[in-house]
Specification:
Elements: H1 2-11, E1 16-18, H2 21-24, E2 42-45, H3 49-62, E3 66-69, E4 86-89, E5 96-100, E6 105-108, H4 114-122, E7 126-127, H5 140-146, H6 153-156, E8 163-169, E9 175-177, H7 191-195, E10 204-211, E11 213-214, E12 220-226, H8 229-241, E13 248-253, H9 254-264, E14 274-280, H10 284-300, E15 303-308, H11 312-323, H12 325-329, E16 334-337, E17 340-341, H13 347-360, E18 364-370, E19 375-382, H14 389-406, H15 425-429, H16 431-444
Parallel strand pairs: 2-4, 3-4
Antiparallel strand pairs: 1-2, 5-6, 6-10, 7-11, 8-9, 8-10, 12-14, 12-15, 13-14, 13-18, 16-19, 17-19, 18-19
Bound molecules: flavin-adenine dinucleotide.
C-alpha cells in the first residue's frame, strides 16, 4: 500500500496527503458519530479536476476505493471512512468559478460552503435557494451528493431542482459533463439527476452549474403555538390545502421548544405542545395576504396564540433558533437526529406514531422539521452511558420507518441512505428497483471503487 501513497505523492506534489492515523482520525466520521468507521489509508485534498482524475486512476490501478468527503456534516454515514481506502476531501476545491447574472447561473467547485455561495451571489442581487440547516458548514458537493433539502423547500424545492449541469470524474478516471447553462436541455438520459443524490457512489463531482434567482424581498415571519402537536400537524395540512406556498413552514414540538428556549432565551411559549414557523418572501401586501391565510388555517386548527416577528432581526433570531434545534437538544443528552417523510396531509398521523413508538421504547424524543414538506426529524435523546440505549433506538427507528411507509412516506426525506438507512431501502423501494440501482452502479463502477458499502 505504501507504493500507492508514494505514487500519489510523486505524481501530485501539490496535493496535501494525510497518512498518520492521528491526522486522519478527524476524517473518519461524519455527524453520525455512532456509525462504525474504518481507518483510511490516507486523506487527500485535491485542488483541481486533474488532481481528482489522477487520484482515481492511481487508486483504480491499485484497486483501492475512494470515499468522497465534503464538510462531514452528513447524517446518514455517507462520508464515513472505509478501512484501507482513500478519503478524498473536496474542501480545497472551494472556488466560485463564475457568477453569471445574464444567465442566472453560478459555476462552482464542490468544496464551496453553501453560505459562502449565497453571500457571494447576494452581491449581484441573486440567491441560491437550497439551504440545509447546516448551510454555514456544509459544501455544495455534499448538498449535491445528498440532494439536500432545507428550510425553503416548500416553495423552492430541493438541491436537484437547482442544478443545470455537473462535471464528474468517473471511477475509471474519465471526466464527463452532464449539462451546462441551458435551462432546457433534454439530449439523452438525464445524467445530472442521476448523479445528484448518488452519495458519492457513482462519480466524484468536481464542478457544478447551479441556477440562481433574483434575491426575494425580506421575509415576514409568523409564529403559531398549539396545545398539542397533532393540532400543529393539522394546521400544516390546512395551510397546504388552502393553496398557500410559504417559503418556510417549520415545526417544533414541546421538548424542542423548551430546549431551544433554554439555549437562546427567546421567550417562546413553553406551555405550548408545538410551534409552527411560517414565512413569506413575497414582499408587501402579497406577503401580508399569504400570512393572513396561514394564520386563518392555524386558528381553525386550534392555535392557542399567534405572533408576528416584530422586525427582520427578530425573524432572523427565530430562524437561527430553529436551525439550532439539533444543537439545543444535544444539551439534554446524546441526541440522535432521524429523518422521515410523509405526504403532507398525513403529518398529524405521523406525529402521533412517533410519539407512540418513542413511548413504547421508553425513549425521550424531540420532534422538529420541515413540516411543510412532510419531512420530520424525530430526535432521540439518551443518557451518554446507557447500555440499553442503542437497542431501544434501533427498535424505535424500525417502527418509525415502517409507520412512515404505511402512511405512503419515505425512510429519508433529505439525509440520504448512506449506511444509516441501507437496511430499509428495499422495504421502501422493492427488490426490483434496488436491482436496477445495482445495475446502474455496476455499469458506472464495475470494480466497486466509489464509496463501497454505502446506499446499496
Ligand atoms: C445541524 C445539522 C443540520 C442539518 N440540516 C440539514 C437540512 O436542513 N437539510 C438537509 O438536507 N441536510 C441537513 N443536514 C445534513 C447535511 O448537512 C447535508 O447532508 C449536507 O449536504 C452534507 O454536506 P457535507 O459537505 O457535510 O457532505 P459530507 O457529509 O462530507 O458528505 C455527504 C455525502 O456526499 C458525498 N460527497 C461529498 N462531496 C462529494 C463530491 N464532490 N462528489 C461526490 N460525492 C460527494 C459523500 O461521499 C457523502 O456520501 C444537517 C446536518 C447537521 C449536522
Amino acid at each position: 500500500m505504501t507504493s500507492l501513497l508514494d505514487e500519489l505523492r510523486a505524481q501530485l506534489p501539490d496535493v496535501r496527503v494525510l497518512h498518520d492515523p492521528a491526522d486522519t482520525e478527524a476524517f473518519r466520521f461524519d455527524e453520525t458519530a455512532y456509525m462504525r468507521a474504518g481507518r483510511p489509508l490516507a486523506v487527500l485534498f485535491p485542488r483541481s479536476t486533474a488532481d481528482v482524475q489522477r487520484i482515481a486512476q492511481l487508486a483504480g490501478a491499485a484497486g483501492v476505493p475512494i470515499v468522497a468527503r465534503g464538510a462531514g456534516t452528513g447524517l446518514s454515514g455517507g462520508a464515513v471512512a472505509v478501512e484501507g481506502t482513500l478519503t478524498v476531501s473536496f474542501t480545497q476545491m472551494n472556488s466560485i468559478l463564475e457568477i453569471d447574472p445574464a444567465n442566472l447561473t453560478a459555476s462552482v467547485q464542490p468544496g464551496v460552503i453553501n453560505a459562502d455561495l449565497n453571500a457571494a451571489v447576494a452581491g449581484n442581487g441573486l440567491f441560491y435557494p437550497p439551504d440545509p440547516a447546516s448551510f454555514e458548514m456544509c459544501t455544495i458537493g455534499g448538498n449535491l451528493a445528498e440532494n439536500s433539502g432545507g428550510l425553503r423547500c416548500v416553495k423552492y424545492g430541493v438541491t436537484r431542482d437547482w442544478v443545470l449541469g455537473l462535471e464528474v470524474v468517473l471511477a475509471d478516471g474519465s471526466v464527463i459533463r452532464t449539462g451546462g447553462k441551458n435551462v432546457k436541455d433534454v439530449a439523452g438520459f438525464d445524467l445530472t439527476s442521476l448523479f445528484v443524490g448518488s452519495e458519492g457512489t457513482l462519480g466524484l463531482i468536481t464542478e457544478a452549474t447551479l441556477r440562481l434567482l433574483p434575491l426575494p424581498p425580506p421575509k415576514l415571519t409568523l409564529i403559531c403555538f398549539f396545545a398539542a402537536v397533532r393540532d400543529a400537524g393539522e394546521a400544516v395540512a390546512r395551510i397546504t390545502a388552502a393553496g398557500v406556498v410559504p417559503v418556510t413552514l417549520e415545526l417544533m414540538d414541546a421538548f424542542t421548544i423548551a430546549a431551544v428556549d433554554d439555549m437562546h432565551q427567546l421567550g417562546l411559549d413553553r406551555s405550548a405542545g408545538a410551534m409552527l414557523m411560517v414565512e413569506s418572501d413575497l414582499g408587501g401586501v402579497a406577503a401580508e395576504a399569504e400570512l393572513a391565510t396561514a394564520e386563518a388555517a392555524c386558528t381553525a386548527a386550534g392555535a392557542t396564540s399567534i405572533v408576528r416577528a416584530a422586525n427582520t432581526q427578530e425573524a432572523d433570531w427565530l430562524r437561527q433558533a430553529r436551525r439550532a434545534a439539533h444543537g439545543s437538544l444535544e444539551r439534554a443528552g446524546v441526541a440522535r437526529m432521524d429523518d422521515v417523510g410523509v405526504p403532507r396531509s398525513r403529518i398529524p398521523e405521523m406525529l402521533e406514531q412517533i410519539e407512540r413508538i418513542a413511548g413504547a421504547n421508553d425513549l425521550r424524543v424531540g420532534v422538529f422539521g420541515h413540516a411543510g414538506d412532510g419531512n420530520l426529524h424525530p430526535t432521540y435523546i439518551v443518557e451518554r452511558d446507557d447500555p440499553t440505549a442503542e437497542a431501544r433506538i434501533d427498535s424505535a427507528r424500525d417502527g418509525i420507518y415502517r409507520a412512515a411507509l404505511e402512511l405512503g412516506g419515505t425512510i429519508t426525506g433529505e439525509h440520504g441512505t448512506g449506511l444509516a438507512k441501507k437496511p430499509w431501502l428495499e422495504l421502501q423501494r422493492g427488490a426490483r428497483a434496488v436491482e436496477v440501482m445495482r445495475a446502474i452502479k455496476q455499469a458506472l463502477d464495475p470494480d466497486g471503487l466509489l464509496n463501497p458499502g454505502k446506499v446499496l
